[in-house]
Amino acid sequence: MAAKSHLRNSSPLVIAVSTNDGLSGSAKNIGALLNYRNIYLAPFGQDDSDGKPRSLVADFERLPEAVSAALDGVQLQPMLYGD
Question: Per-residue pLDDT tens for 1-25?
Fold first, then answer.
């Protein structure tokens, strides 16, 4: 409800994705979020490509930078990084 209220006020919403099935079941939902106005993703990548091949984790060290970019209406790049 907080996110919905935030978007209703046309404020940017930054989401930090961390999930064990990001490259399987959740992939289409993550992709769909990119089509919404005022929704931005913190940079994310695989945390253990060998041990957990479908797992994604946000780069929380870059979260302040992602928020700053979102306030400027820009998606921080690269959004998806590799090992």
Answer: 888 888 899 999 999 998 887 677 7
5 membership: H or E segment, kind and range: helix 2-8
C-alpha span between 67 and 21 (Å, rounded): 25
Question: And the tokens for 4?
Answer: 């919905």
DSSP states of 16-74 as a string? Answer: ---BTTTTTTTHHHHHHHTTSTTEEE--EE-S-TTT-TT-BEE-GGGHHHHHHHHHTT-
The predicted model scores a pTM of: 0.86
